[in-house]
Write a structure and sequence with these properties.
This protein starts with a helix and ends with a strand. The protein has helices spanning 5-8, 135-146, 210-221; strands spanning 37-41, 66-69, 73-77, 82-87, 94-99, 102-106, 114-118, 121-128, 163-167, 170-175, 183-191, 194-202, 225-226. A hairpin with a 7-residue loop joins strand 6 and strand 7. The protein has 228 residues and is mainly beta. Strands 4-5-8-12-11-10-9 form a seven-stranded antiparallel beta sheet, sandwiched between helices. Helix content is 12%, strand content 33%. It has one domain: Protein Transport Mog1p, Chain A. It contains three helices and 13 strands; from the N terminus they run H-E-E-E-E-E-E-E-E-H-E-E-E-E-H-E.
């Protein structure tokens, strides 16, 4: 995946869910100033890498976390993060990214070089649910659209049925879109009038340590609340 992708993405969602309903970005917040940049060093590019001189990624919500106020929902996020207009990858859902401080991951591995990007990033996308569709109906329409090309059901590109889970005390559906050499996840929160999608991505363009990123993403998502 091109490491500059997260600096230039901002496209409107037009195909997912059959394109029958109008869509809008997750929030009308004003993007923040860029997060501070840190240079980090790793012994090798692997899930076991440890970063030095990098900002510590929290594993649970903290007292100083900020509040993200979306349309009909809130969640909290670390105080060192910034909010930036962006789109998810690979689904290209327009929204707002919660982006951690930028780091450069140096690797002594031959031919690997350095990777610069945010130490973590979640993209929050929010769409009106004008038809009042259920989570199953919404996600099924997403899968039909993404699988609408020639391939077999055992193809790597075939988007499998969602997994049901409970997050922040709410029932959600989790979908894994095809991404090639990256690892994406989408969490669908569905209410009668709104859909919120939290998109995770594990990729070299987001060079933080994956285990720490996963714990932080779980902590952020655990603060999700619907509001009137």
């Amino acid at each position: 995946m091109n490491l500059s992708r997260h600096l230039v993405l901002l496209v409107a969602l037009s195909a997912s869910c059959g394109g029958r309903e109008s869509r809008s970005p997750a929030d009308s917040v004003t993007p923040d100033s860029p997060a501070p940049r840190v240079v980090a060093t790793a012994s090798a590019m692997s899930p076991q890498d440890t970063l030095t001189a990098a900002p510590q990624i929290p594993s649970e919500p903290g007292a100083g976390w900020k509040v993200f106020r979306g349309d009909g929902f809130t969640l909290r996020y670390p105080s060192d993060a910034v909010l930036v207009a962006d789109t998810s990858y690979p689904a290209r859902l327009a929204g707002i990214a919660i982006r951690g401080p930028e780091i450069t991951l140096q690797s002594p591995g031959k031919g690997i070089g350095a990777h610069t990007g945010p130490s973590y990033q979640l993209v929050i996308s929010s769409f009106p649910n004008a038809a009042g569709r259920s989570a199953e109906a919404w996600v099924d329409s997403v899968r039909r659209e993404r699988n609408n090309h020639d391939m077999s059901d055992d193809s790597m590109a075939f988007v499998r049925p969602p997994v049901t889970a409970r997050v922040a005390g709410l029932r959600v559906l989790e979908l894994v879109p095809f991404c090639g050499d990256c690892q994406p996840e989408e969490i669908y929160f569905v209410a009668p009038r709104r859909i919120v999608v939290v998109s995770k991505l594990y990729d070299l363009s987001i060079p933080g340590e994956q285990t720490a990123q996963s714990r932080l993403y779980d902590a952020i998502v655990s603060t999700f609340r619907w509001v009137e």
